[in-house]
Specification:
Elements (H helix, E strand, L loop, with lengths): L9 E2 H11 L6 E5 L12 E2 L9 E2 L3 E4 L9 E8 L13 E5 L11 E4 L3 E4 L2 E4 L9 E2 L10 E3 L9 H7 L4 E5 L3 E7 L3 E2 L10 E2 L2 H11 L3 E8 L3 H11 L4 E5 L10 H8 E11 L3 E7 L2 E6 L3 H19 L10 E6 L10 E10 L5 E5 L9 H5 L2 E5 L11 E6 L6
Helix pairs in contact: 1-6, 3-6
Amino acid sequence: MGCCDAPGLMPVESALTKILAEVKPLETVHAVSLSEAMGQVIAEDILSPINVPPFANSAMDGYALRSADLKKTDTLTLAGKSFAGIPFEGVCTEGQCIRIMTGAQMPEGADTVIMQEETEVDGDSVRFLIKPPANDNVRPIGDDVCLGDIVVAKGNRVTAREMPLLASLGIATVNVYRRPSVAFFSTGDELRSVGEPLEAGQIYDSNRYGIRALLEKFGCDVIDLGIIPDNPEKLREAFDEATKADVLVTSGGVSVGEADYTKDILDEQGEIGFWKIAMKPGKPFAFGTIKDTWFCGLPGNPVSAMLTLYQLVQPMIAKLAGHTQYQAPQRLKAKATTVFKKRPGRTDFQRGIYQINTEGLIEVATTGNQGSGAFSSMHQANCFVVLEQERGRVMPGEDVTIELFNHTMY
């Protein structure tokens, strides 16, 4: 039975719940060098092997001293210097101060740093204009990270925020989950690759480029199987090749009335749920398995394909990858400044442009044409305007929910 033959429409939330209930993490673990860890999911808690900083150091350029000495005098004798990487090797004794730079190790005996702007220097005599408490402007051992602290928890994806943190701890290798491998292809005799001339009735295959871009942002290893014509043997070969991957994503071929053999082959080789989802754009969507490979059949229209991939496949891939810290794109309330056309019956993900007005309030306007083939609206948008399933037309001034694009859209 085709996805549009079944009575009723499945709510988007129900479809996602069903997907996530079935998918289990891959859990294959291997070690990678830190330079290869970007975008990978951490397979075990990473504990700090050291204190950061490993020694007490100065928070600014100035003079290190014994705070108790300033209770007796405001002038001390300069006894040496401490630079980052070249510490003062002696002991700061009573009546002495040490010139110190930001990040330099605190001399033994000193407990306080006074910034150079709060001093008057005359040769080796330094007069201090303030008398701060002990430990002022001093970063203690372990001020940032203590030995044994969990610095990155299991299930986090390594980003540019984690890379320097791990490097600062001297961690050279990390254990990560294997990236999900995802094969994908487009179907249709009407499709042509970019760079080829178009003949009557033909269009360029844009979906594979958008699908690949998102899948790579999701943290997948991708296998592009190209354009598969509406030929049963070619389709069977493509499905056989794709079952080497963890996931197969296709665009086109899951709607009623399409002149192809995709649904027949899926019925032969897999267990597929063809759904009508109460989602616009993106009603036709298929999910299931082919042998040991997860299958996600996206609609053929460009915006529909990208939207279903973003809303339904993205969280599925996150679970498969062991990314337990994954967070759905952020949703906020906004004030509509334009009309949003809608009929009750499906949750509508319209493309919008939000901004903060002069009063600090969030406003959102439509990008215009919301057709499932109007991909220029995705280029213009910076959010989805999520209009509830039973909601109708939205007028200017009404409150709406917007969903900010996450990093995968940038």
